[in-house]
Structures are given as structure tokens and as C-alpha cells.
Write a structure and sequence with these properties.
Elements lengths: L1 H32 L6 H11 L3 H4 L1 H13 L1 H10 L1 H21 L6 H28 L3 E2 L2 E2 L9 H25 L2 H32 L1 H8 L3 H5 L1 H18 L5 H21 L2 E3 L3 E2 H4 L3 H28 L4 E2 L3 E2 L1
Antiparallel strand pairs: 1-2, 3-4, 5-6
Helix pairs in contact: 1-4, 1-7, 1-8, 1-15, 4-5, 6-7, 7-8, 8-9, 8-13, 9-10, 9-12, 12-13
Length: 334
């Protein structure tokens, strides 16, 4: 029973993290693309496309962090000191970005300043998230139940590469969102941005896919030993098919399918990382069962999660339904 509860909580946290990456990813991507827009009118439309939903998207970040503390306190106690600097930078950037988001609509003379703040907040927060991801994949120096690594162990060529890669990924997600939510010349601009970003993201996916097995023999054995290589081969095949589908959808100027295909690329990439790291919550030493809280605590927390998660999904779905359709300069949504 305890083992089942631990797996359930691992799935809940993984779901929360993915929902954050997906939902906050595209509006961070809009911020990353912000300075490349052709006019201030385009920047207004870009911000209006995410204005009703951007702050609600960050609920999933709170859920993931709180769930990790409650269900896997040992993992929280190790990850926080190991990644204190990039996590703090990420949170400060998200705060700065949120302030810029609100002030820009009211500013006149200082609007260019807040434009830059919105862009830098989005860019720095995304880069920090990518660095955290890279550091997590590399693993942490642990002695017993304590983190024994240095303050800057997270700063490596691999983590910097994943930071840049996530910036490209969020920018692609943001451009696909703009394709779906805008029209006319801004949509045409978003199509043009998405094509080179797709090729950049595929390069980073290939680098991570090849570099990650080199970091750990167990990961290499999991992917390249027989019969695992046969069982797992659909993942790179599906990735290639989705990438081709996304390219074709962009060439044919489809409205919605580029966003769906881009989301599919994120799902497969996330699944590939889960396969590589399972069942470790602190790679390469501590499994989810070793880091889990007591079964009594997990049951108590699960009762709360059974109420909170459906409520978040319900109000998220409702907000997206209310603000469905294209956004326009004259009337907002239609």
C-alpha cells in the first residue's frame, strides 16, 4: 500500500510539473519573443493573448513545489540547497515579469522599460528552469540524507545547454500559441518565427538524447540494451513524425495543429526524461520510496489533492473556454 501511494504521489508531482511547463511555457515563450515583434501594436496583442490566463498558469508551480515538500521531504531538503541560486533567480524573475506585465498597460513614457523587463523576466526565468532541469538530470552529491556538493555544482556545460534549449523550446511553444491566437500580419510573423525555432529545438533534443546516456551507465543501459531498445524505439520515431507534422502544419498555415504538435514534442521529451531517471527522485542515489513521507502523511495529503487538483483543472478549463478564439486590437477576443 505504501509503495502504491508513493507511486501515486510521484505521478501527481510529475503531472503538476508538466502542467506548469506546458501552461506557463507558452506565455514565457511569448515574453521571450517580445523584443522581436515588429511593432508596439503587435506587442500589445501578444500580451493580450496571455493576459487573462498567465497568472493562473503558475498555480501548477506552487502545486509541484508544495507536493514535493509534503510527499518527498528528503528530496526537497536536498534539492533546495543544491539548486538554491537558480531557483531563487527563477522566482525573482517571475516576480519581476509579473510586475512588468501589470505596469506596462498603465505606463506611457516608461513603457519601453517595462517591455524590456517583461522580456528579461521571461528569458531569465526560462533559462533558470532549464539549468535546474540539467542539474537534476546530472544528479546530486549526497552522503546519507544530506547534500554534500558545492553551491555552484549546478553550473556545468550540460546545465547551461539545457537552459538554452528550454529557452528555444518555450519560444517555439509561444510562437505556436500566437499562431493559434492571432491573425493577419502578427500570425504571419509567428509562422516565420516558428520554423527556425523548430529546427533549433530538434537540435537540442538530439544533443540531450545523446548526452544524457553519457552521464550515467544505467541510463545508457536502459535505452540501448536489448530488448529495451526495441521497446523504447517508438519514442524517437514519434518525435520525428511529430516534428515533420509540425513543419508541414507551419508550411500549410494551419491554425491550431502547430500548437498541438509542439505540445506533443514536449510530452515525448518529458516522457523520455522520465524513462531515463525512473525511479530516482534524487539521481543517481535516492529513489522515490526512500525519499517518501510516511504512508499516513501521504494518505492525508492525497485527500486534499483529490479536491485541489480537480478544482484547479476546472477553473483553468473555464478560463480558457471564456477567453477562447482569436485576440484582436479592437475588441480583444472574438
Amino acid at each position: 500500500m505504501a509503495a502504491d501511494l508513493t507511486v501515486i504521489w510521484a505521478a501527481i508531482i510529475a503531472f503538476g510539473v508538466f502542467m506548469y511547463v506546458f501552461m506557463d511555457g507558452f506565455d514565457l515563450g511569448v515574453g521571450i519573443l517580445f523584443p522581436f515583434a515588429r511593432s508596439d501594436r503587435h506587442r500589445d496583442l501578444m500580451m493580450n493573448s496571455v493576459a487573462p490566463i498567465w497568472d493562473g498558469n503558475e498555480t501548477w508551480l506552487v502545486l509541484g513545489g508544495a507536493g514535493l515538500l509534503a510527499a518527498f521531504p528528503l528530496a526537497y531538503a536536498i534539492i533546495l540547497p543544491a539548486l538554491y541560486i537558480p531557483l531563487t533567480v527563477m522566482l525573482l524573475a517571475l516576480i519581476f515579469r509579473g510586475v512588468a506585465f501589470e505596469f506596462r498597460f498603465k505606463a506611457e513614457a516608461s513603457r519601453p522599460l517595462w517591455d524590456r523587463a517583461f522580456n528579461l523576466g521571461s528569458l531569465v526565468a526560462t533559462g533558470a528552469q532549464g539549468i535546474v532541469l540539467g542539474a537534476f538530470i546530472q544528479g546530486f552529491a549526497v552522503d546519507g540524507r544530506d547534500y554534500v556538493g558545492g553551491m555552484f555544482d549546478w553550473l556545468t556545460p550540460f546545465s547551461l545547454m539545457t537552459g538554452v534549449g528550454l529557452v528555444a523550446g518555450y519560444a517555439l511553444l509561444g510562437s505556436a500559441w500566437l499562431v493559434m491566437k492571432t491573425e493577419a500580419d502578427l500570425q504571419a510573423w509567428a509562422y516565420g518565427m516558428a520554423r527556425p525555432l523548430l529546427f533549433g529545438v530538434l537540435i537540442f533534443i538530439a544533443i540531450v538524447s545523446l548526452w544524457t546516456p553519457l552521464l550515467d551507465r544505467d541510463i545508457a543501459g536502459r535505452w540501448f540494451s536489448w530488448p529495451n531498445i526495441a521497446y523504447l524505439s517508438p519514442i524517437p520515431i514519434l518525435t520525428a513524425l511529430l516534428a515533420f507534422g509540425l513543419y508541414r502544419a507551419l508550411e500549410l498555415h494551419h491554425d491550431r495543429t502547430p500548437f498541438v504538435y509542439t505540445l506533443g514534442l514536449f510530452v515525448l521529451s518529458y516522457g523520455g526524461l522520465a524513462i531515463s531517471l525512473w525511479p530516482y527522485v534524487i539521481p543517481p542515489d535516492i529513489t522515490i520510496w526512500e525519499a517518501a513521507s510516511s504512508p499516513t502523511s501521504q494518505i492525508f495529503l492525497l485527500a486534499g489533492a483529490a479536491f485541489v487538483i480537480p478544482a484547479i483543472l476546472a477553473y483553468t478549463a473555464w478560463s480558457y473556454y471564456v477567453f477562447r478564439g482569436k485576440v484582436r486590437q479592437d475588441i480583444g477576443y472574438h
